[in-house]
């Protein structure tokens, strides 16, 4: 038997191929993939920025949902037919990070769907320890949002955001928007800085105060909104120098800054402001198991994550799905439907 898989083959190209359907190995679970979300990381792959890491024949995709279709030897606690999502991290268990309990930032971390083949295929074999089961009434389409939501949950947890605090989110893409949603869920007042008018409109509809840096001084506006105090917590999600300038300028005395964005270049940071206001900065990378558990509970409690799903394409149209994202000002989250092509 063979299955269909979408391979990234370099040069902004995906190739649909028939491949063997290997049985899950010992300790592995096979999932019939239902939906796969396209992540910012996947777009980086598409643009060729990660060729050194992924090579030129790789099935990508890690934001997914599906149904267990087979179990490898020795797998317990999960059954064929269970509806699941995958926490796409495989750790070594030996390094200092793993030994300290921080397996999600293992020094030899394998990210499934980048360092190994991912979810853009009809069947995906993954280590059983990466599986999280879904509540019976959660749709598989909504469940594809759990992975990016877990990122946001981890960020908010790392920042120790409390009820009644003011959170400033710099950057209103899918992760920024999800951080804002989680921040509101924990009872914070949420301000979102973003230049895209479509995203600012969505922010307004979701109950966040949207501010556009192209139309005014966001730090001054945050200072005014908070009665000269500034933001208790700032999430830097933009990955830009203006974002880094804003994070220190808008932070309250003893404010916490959470670094979410991947800054490929060394940014200039206002260290005087750090000293002067006794600021604190934490890094936040991917998620831990408890972030997945919380994300699943939040969606079950009605967090409206489906509002971010703007586009849907079948597996056979992965190429078109990525092309449609180029310079697209209205797209937020694109989902690939895999199951239908089975
Ligand atoms: Zn992702
Ligand atoms: Zn490790």
TrEMBL record:
The keyword Zinc is annotated on this UniProt entry: yes
Residue span(s) of domain Enoyl reductase (ER): 10-310
InterPro entries cross-referenced by the UniProt entry: ADH-like_C, ADH-like_N, ADH_Zn_CS, ER, GroES-like_sf, NAD(P)-bd_dom_sf
Pfam families for this protein: ADH_N (PF08240), ADH_zinc_N (PF00107)
Keywords in alphabetical order: Metal-binding, Oxidoreductase, Zinc
Domain of life of the organism encoding this protein: Bacteria
Gene3D superfamilies the record matches: Medium-chain alcohol dehydrogenases, catalytic domain (3.90.180.10), NAD(P)-binding Rossmann-like Domain (3.40.50.720)
Needed cofactors: Zn(2+)
Molecular functions (GO terms): oxidoreductase activity, acting on the CH-OH group of donors, NAD or NADP as acceptor; zinc ion binding
Assigned protein family: Belongs to the zinc-containing alcohol dehydrogenase family.
Official protein name in the record: Threonine dehydrogenase
């Amino acid at each position: 038997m063979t299955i269909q898989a979408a391979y990234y083959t370099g040069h902004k190209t995906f190739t649909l191929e028939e491949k063997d359907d290997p049985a899950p190995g010992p300790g592995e679970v096979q999932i019939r993939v239902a939906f796969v979300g396209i992540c910012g990381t996947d777009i980086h792959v598409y643009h060729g920025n990660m060729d050194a890491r992924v090579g030129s024949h790789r099935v990508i995709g890690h934001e997914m949902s599906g149904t267990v279709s087979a179990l490898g030897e020795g797998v317990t606690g999960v059954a064929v037919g269970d509806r699941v999502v995958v926490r796409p991290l495989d750790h070594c268990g030996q390094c200092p990070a793993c030994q300290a309990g921080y397996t999600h930032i293992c020094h030899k971390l394998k990210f499934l769907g980048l360092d190994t083949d991912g979810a853009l295929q009809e069947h995906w074999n993954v280590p059983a320890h990466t599986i999280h089961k879904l509540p019976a009434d959660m749709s598989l389409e909504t469940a594809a949002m759990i992975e990016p939501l877990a990122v946001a949950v981890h960020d908010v947890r790392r920042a120790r955001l409390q009820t009644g605090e003011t959170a400033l989110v710099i950057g209103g893409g899918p992760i920024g928007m999800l951080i804002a949603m989680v921040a509101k869920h924990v009872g914070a007042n949420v301000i979102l800085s973003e230049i895209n008018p479509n995203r600012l409109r969505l922010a307004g509809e979701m109950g966040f105060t949207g501010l556009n840096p192209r139309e005014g001084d966001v730090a001054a506006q945050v200072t005014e909104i908070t009665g000269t105090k500034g933001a208790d917590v700032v999430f830097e999600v933009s990955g830009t120098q203006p974002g880094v300038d804003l994070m220190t300028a808008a932070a309250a005395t003893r404010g916490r800054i959470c670094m979410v964005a991947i800054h490929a270049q060394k940014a200039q940071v206002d260290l005087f402001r750090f000293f002067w206001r006794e600021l604190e900065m934490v890094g936040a990378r991917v998620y831990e198991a408890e972030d997945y558990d919380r994300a699943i509970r939040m969606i079950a409690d009605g967090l409206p994550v489906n509002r971010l799903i703007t586009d849907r394409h079948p597996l056979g149209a992965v190429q078109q799905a990525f092309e449609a994202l180029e310079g697209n000002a209205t797209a937020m989250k694109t989902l690939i439907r895999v199951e239908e092509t089975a």
